[in-house]
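Hello Y.,

Per our agreement to keep a running log of every chain we model this quarter, I'm adding this entry. I've kept the format consistent with earlier entries: sequence first, then predicted structure.
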Amino acid sequence: MAVSKNGLTVAAANDAIIESNGNLGSVIMASFSSQGPTDDLRIKPDITGNGVSLFSTGEEADDDYFSISGTSMATPNVSGTLLLIQEYAFKNLDTYLKAATLKGLVLHTADNIGSAGPDAISGWGLLNAKKAVEVLGERGGSTRVFENKLPQGITHSMEIMASGTEPLSVSISWTDLVGNENYIANSSTPALVNNLDLVVKKGDTNFYPWRLTSVDQNANNGPNQVDPFERVDIMAAEGLYTLFVSHSGNILLGQDYSLTVTGVEPKPVLGSLEFAEITSNSAKISSSIVWEGEGGVSSFGFIWSESQEDFDAQATEINLTNKAEFFKTLSLLKPNTTYYVKAFAENLDSKIYTNLGSIKTLASLAELSSVTASDVSSNSAVFSSKILSNGGVEVTSTGFLIGRSAGFVSSEGVEISGTLTGEDFTGSATNLLPNTTYFVRAFAVNSEGKSESAEFSFTTLASLAELSSVTASDISSSSAVFFSKILSNGGVEVTSTGFVIGRTAGFASSEGVEISGKLTGEDFTGAATNLLPNTTYFVRAFAVNSEGRSESAEFSFTTLKSLAKLSSVTTSDKSSNSAVFSSKILSNGGVEVTSTGFVIGRSAGFASSEGVEISGMLAGEDFKGSATNLLPNTTYFVRAFAVNSEGRSESAEISFTTLKSLAKLSSVTASDVSSNSGVFSSKILSNGGVEVTSTGFLIGRSAGFASSAGLEVSGTLTGEDFAGSATNLLPNTTYFVRAFAVNSEGRSESAEISFTTLKSLAKLSSVITSDISSNSAVFSSKILSNGGVEVTSTGFLIGRSAGFASSEGVEISGMLAGEDFTGSATNLIPNTTYFIRAFAVNSEGRSESAEISFKTPAALAVISNPEISNVTLTSALLTSNILNDWNAEVKEFGLILGGQENLNKENGTSFVSASQKTPFTIQVNELKPGTVYYVRSYIENAVGTNFSPVFSFQTKADQEKPALKDFSFDDELRIGIDSSLMINLRVTDNYKLKNIQIFYKGIRQKLELDNWEFTENLISEGVQAVDLRVEIPKRSFDELGMMHYIRVEDEFKNVFESTISYTYLHYPESAPYQVELNHIGPKVSDYRMIGTPLMSAESMENYFIQAFQKNDPAIWRVFGLKNQAIQSLKKEDLPEPGKGFWAIANKKAILRYVGTVSKVKHHNPVFIALEKGWNLLANPYPFMVNWEEVLAENEVKITSSLSRPVKFEGTYQFVDEIMPSQGFYIFSLEPVTIRIPFLKNNLSANGRIQDRPEEEGWELKLTLKNSKGEEQAWSSLGVNLGAKQGFDRFDMPLLPQLSSDFSIKILEDQDENFYYSRSIIQPKDTFDWVVELEKRDNDSDLLMSWEITGTLPDGHTIIYQI
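Predicted structure for the entry above:
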């Protein structure tokens, strides 16, 4: 177990000396602690813990403790500490660390013991738990702790900015697979199965992890091939580093690993501040976030000011949001002005600024304020404007342009010179037309040209309105209608019109009567009333505008004649039979009145022919008449009349009443005489002209008895008849009776009569019912005879069955009025038949009337108010109850729901209860969220429908976006197999979905362009959840694939949009990506550079074996470039986008690549890391790449170090358009990483990249041929002014050698003994090269030839010495 790969082997040490600041002072290893390393030089032990004299449990008793030493004590010490670290992780990070993470963390943070780096005595050092948890606590700030998985054939990379204040340390830790058993003693074969490699790079410098090189030596100058924990320490780290995690050999299932980094810069780091697109009022400022630091950059942008001295106090801050677009265009700047700018960025740690930069805007045309006009008259105006900005240079002239139409051409306007005072200038226009709209623009001229202001319009002053002559129509005796027309409104709105009328020609306006006018368009009318008939009037029209009042010419007309007009009649000297009338002629109708009088009648509005006519006596305009023989206290109606040549007219009608008198009565008649009663009747022959207030009878026992001595019997008056009955009379007795009547004039009596009484029971009339309702009724009856004696009580008996016994009925008291009596029953039951009899009681007994029946009508049923509960987004529970159905059939009952407060069955939805049970409950669904609904209960029977009051409730509002519950698709589309992309999704909403669309387009399209294709709405409105399977056609893919996102909207306009997803083209074995090898030949010049745009798991060698059906170097060869040297490929050399290869073949074939195109995204295209020197690359995409677009995509500091691409087609050639699968060389002065853009039309430019000027010089090409004349090797040497010594863009790597039998080597001036295909040097007086020609096959002849290109300097020659 001590040598286990994945375990933690613990060494023991004495108690450490810890300094006051918590750092390790010193520690001494325990003498008994075992030492490593393993046979394969793995670092063992891994970690050291305190293992000397630890106080621990004993074995003698349950409470036995003692001090003990050993690695067996150091190990639990370390184990317990690791558990505490796990507890810290769980409490603070909400997760437990993986074993590899925990192991890596403590090895990373251990305090070194002895010399730098790990050793075979203490491992990585003394466990430091404090530092371990500090690394966890600071992760994301100055530390990083990740857990990741490395797939087969993939390299992970990460950029790290060093803090510069402490060492930068990077480590990886992984749990390795179980290895093969090895029983060989002292075997150095590594036990490691999955060999991960960690390297940290800065520029062309690689930093490697620690490893043991012997029992007592370590190093960090190369990869560690044996340990499952690797750590790189960079002591004086500054700037940006890139760490790479890769693997050697196969890791078929991938490998989980844990990464720990310390010494990270927590602050953000910004790139340089740059300026572009500077105009007179704007400038583009840009920077970049080189490093985001702790928690990522939360805010970033610029601050800028016009003041350098007081920059911080006056600066304006601009915050940006898109980190990929760290730029801002400043606008509204002053021309020809210097501004000062800083970029800033802020994260959780701090806020940092760049150094202060400055820009100066360009000069521009002057900027002017809008024109204002003053002193405007009908023919002139004064204009003024202001120079808002002189454009940064002096304004030499100003003025104004005036025209008659909006937007007039400047050359067509009239120019008016301006007078400049400071920044203000004025100008005057004369000879203008009155009440005319003009358009004016100010102008100013400076050295940049002439500028104009916005256009301004004004109108010259107006005048009084002009009117047409008046015309009159509809002339009557008392009225007329006038017309006129506004010929001109004087240029302003007419605010009022009308007419003025008088009785004399040319009357003063103030003396006339003014009549308002009604304006319609330009016409207006007015009407005059109360005119005198047959009279001449004079009229003028008038109109008022802001300039004053104008009048038309005067017009005259004469009114028509008419009937006379009379005043109302007045009455005087009224008596009971006469009256005097008077009236007045208000108007004679324009002609003479020939007669007057009055007409009198008894009814209002009587016809004149039915009235009595009374002649009038005329005195001037007044006339009178008298009426006699009138009835007393009687209302009469009177109208005056007058006659002229136009006819007869009458006044309004009045009424009057004659005086009153005593009433006159007929003789009394007696009837229904019984033993103790009698009924008397009489008639009012005349009421004396006033109301009779009471009637009755006087009864006495002697003829001619005095009225005061008689018995008075009240009379019941019916019309002019009245009756009375006498009771308590003595039976069989003679009585004397006189009728009497009383009015306001007194009491009168009739002639006297006599009668003799009888004896009997009272007699009653049948009962009469009235005012019958569902629960009440009124009954009446009449005492036909009191039986000659007094009736002592009356009433009614009511029962539920015909002929009910009187004792079983309910008795209702009667109210007697004379001989009539009434009673009322309440609390009756609706829709019920009742039986009723009247009764009366006198001294002779009780008598009852005949029985009648009646039925109460049915009543409206009664229902309770609705109760509302369980209200949700789309539903509610409604409850109500039938309170009373009154024993009548209920036709229907339920609830009405609607959106209006005045709710009824017509505007609401009825929910009829399906159950006859009460109370009843109705669940209403499919309501609209956030909506007010109104509800009321209703019940219907034969009588009608009864409603409860209206109540309201509101459903809950839907404010949540739709949810995308499931979204799945294949991120790789298999070309030739799949014809489309199938997308599966599940969408839900709180209420109802309205629209679901998928937007898609090719990956090479720009994100920001509005050219997305999209599906139609995938659903019908109203669903709440939907599962969809959507097919996106293959035609929507471009050479890389397709990007797509989903947009969902519900009925409340809540919108959800998914992030953009990508699907990439995958070429399977059934439909591979094919590249034809068309160029064949046996010569060095037949080599070609190739590549593939696919990420493939198959080696390049296997693709060639598959293409040529064999692995035969006589048929084909493939090479790569590594460390500036051509090398044969290994089986593990996999093709990948951007990686180039040398290839040659002696017959044609097709390479069939299987794999996926580069999985680029718009923020992450293909990146290619270039080494210093020559790099063998290939087009990483399945479409042409324009090198001009590549240069435009990368910063100048990168592209300036690059040569142009060079391809090989027999000779080296510069190339700008790199075709798919094309390989090429690029020379770089420094190690850089370049971006290869993939967007269509990424850069629209004309022309080609300019060639670097090749300075004058010459070149000697040496060619070695075999006996067949085939080129077998070649090289060249020469001079060029731009060349460096031994290693630059002129000295290209050797081509792959076809045969080891032939070679050309230029031995002089090489860089580190590396041989180039060309050796080009700077000029000097003497040029010496040593060329070695090697021939190892003595059976073939060798032919060398040479060719000079360029021009040798004067006086120079080439000397060949063999």
